[in-house]
TrEMBL record:
Source organism, top-level taxon: Eukaryota
Protein name: DUF4817 domain-containing protein
Organism: Popillia japonica
Length: 156
């Protein structure tokens, strides 16, 4: 493991070369011929680690967050009771983060409900719908590409 002086020298050279890792890679052996030459990515990596974490050493991640089974049960109970609830509402009510609600739902292969109001269909709408369907079928017979040019979505 390099000493703190070595790390400091690497960062000084990186700064001297205006943050250019390739130039830093060339300059470092000129000034410190007795040291092992770093590869060019080491210069920018050390600078990034120092900027983000306050240390030049590699930071170990805390690992995966443990699942709180009590929160999981509460989230599932809330969505079973009312499937139209939003993720934000459940998270606020339970005092947990939204991403935890999302992760819980994803683990259980659930999806939040996106309520979309639909206009009521009346009996008198039937002739107009039939006319529209016939138009689509007739036009599709005349022009095979007609229906392929329509962008079909399930959104209102």
């Amino acid at each position: 493991m390099p000493s703190l002086f070595t790390h400091a020298d690497i960062l000084c050279i990186y700064g001297f070369c205006n943050g250019n890792a390739r130039d830093s890679r060339r300059e470092y052996p000129r000034r410190f011929s007795n040291r092992r030459t770093s590869n060019k990515s080491e210069f920018s990596a050390k600078y990034r680690r120092l900027s983000e974490h306050g240390t030049v050493h590699t930071v170990q991640s805390a690992g995966r967050v443990e699942v709180n089974h009590e929160d999981t049960e509460q989230v599932l109970e809330r969505f079973e009771a009312d499937p139209t609830l939003s993720v934000r509402k459940v998270a606020n009510d339970l005092g947990i983060l939204q991403w935890k609600v999302w992760c819980t739902m994803r683990r259980m292969s659930l999806h939040p409900c996106h309520y979309t109001s639909v206009q009521h269909q009346c009996e008198q709408d039937l002739p107009q719908r039939l006319q529209f369907y016939r138009f689509l079928l007739d036009t599709d017979i005349e022009d095979e590409l007609f229906l392929k040019r329509i962008l079909w979505t399930d959104e209102s």
